[in-house]
Amino acid sequence: MILLKNFPIGLHTTWLSEAQQHIDDPHCKNWLLDKGSLTQRLQSHCRQFSVEVLGQQPAQLHNDEWQVLAGDADTGDDFQVREVLLCGEDTPWVFARSIIPNALLDSELVNLGNRPLGHLLFSDSRFQRMPFELTQLTLGNPLLPSLGLQGHHSLWGRRSVFAFQQHKLLVAEVFLPHAPIYRY
């Protein structure tokens, strides 16, 4: 279990479209562009899977997040930030940061708790995933130190919007150093 003093951690990086981001490794590319449930894929690589909720509350959105979600609301108060770790065998594999409209938390996603968001998004065909944006976090990125983790290589991440009626939900996922994406 990771104990954090500073929630939200945030995700400071530059996001690029799939066409703008070159991915040399076909194994990594397969993971990054897989349109299925990441939760289910991770579960297939371990015996014990868990979600550790780092926090969920109204919080300041990053400018790039606000731009992606523009049009849903006039203020950041209409969204909550949810940050979690997806863990396999008690090892953090993925850091996920989701920006969720309060309207969905009061209806479709009520009582989310420590359940994987992916289970809900992929079990309801009314949620439509938009194209991915990708990022590669260098060793100097503050994410790993903020999580109390160490790494020896850059980390891949992806994010996409899920549309539901007039709402947009933004889900960003960064594959941490021990994630199966880096195993060959």
Proportion in helices: 10-25%
CATH architecture: 3-Layer(aba) Sandwich
Count of domains: 1
Segments where pLDDT lies below 50 for 5+ residues?
A: none
User: Strand-and-helix sequence, N→C?
Assistant: EHHEHEEHHEEHEE
Put simply, the count of helices is 6
What's the CATH class, please? Alpha Beta
Average residue-wise pLDDT: 88
Counting DSSP E segments of at least 2 residues, the number of strands comes to: 8
Question: Strand portion, in percent?
Answer: 25-35%
Shape: globular
* Sheet of most strands: 8 strands, antiparallel
* CATH homologous superfamily caption: Chorismate lyase-like
Structural class computed from helices and strand pairing: alpha+beta
The third-level CATH topology is Chorismate lyase
| N-to-C CA distance | 27 Å
Taking Cα atoms only, what radius of gyration do you get, to the nearest Å? 15 Å
